[in-house]
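Please fill in the sequence for the structure shown.

STRUCTURE ENCODING:
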């Protein structure tokens, strides 16, 4: 999944901005192509909650800041880490802790998910332990 501002509305006032969440119809579990609707409901809710966390983050930004954020996200690993962790924080602050944790657990402990994807999750996103510390 991927959330982003609608390009034609990116310079609109916050109250007029629009966002798009791209959702692939299939999820790759190693060599297995799984239709998204066959994934556990809690996992989908966690993923969607994370993407809505991005939108909540975007809503706090001025137009100039949002454009700069997008450029940094494209070229800076540090910006990606900050963005992904901020999205998780927003989701957790709005009651999504259990879903976010289940989604992380699903990704990190599912044998068929590629190590490359798991490494990306470990590198850029909050770990389950960091999530728990945040809640406490």
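FILLED IN BY: designer on duty
SEQUENCE:
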């Amino acid at each position: 999944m991927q959330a982003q501002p609608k390009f034609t509305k990116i310079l609109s006032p916050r109250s007029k901005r629009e966002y798009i969440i791209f959702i692939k119809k299939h999820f790759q579990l190693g060599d297995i192509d799984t239709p998204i609707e066959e994934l556990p409901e809690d996992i989908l809710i966690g993923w969607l909650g994370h993407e809505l966390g991005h939108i909540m983050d975007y809503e706090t930004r001025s137009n100039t800041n949002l454009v700069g954020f997008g450029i940094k996200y494209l070229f800076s690993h540090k910006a990606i880490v900050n963005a992904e962790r901020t999205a998780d924080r927003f989701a957790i602050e709005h009651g999504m802790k259990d879903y976010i944790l289940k989604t992380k657990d699903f990704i990190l402990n599912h044998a068929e998910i590629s190590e490359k994807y798991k490494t990306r999750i470990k590198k850029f996103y909050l770990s389950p332990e960091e999530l728990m510390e945040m809640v406490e």
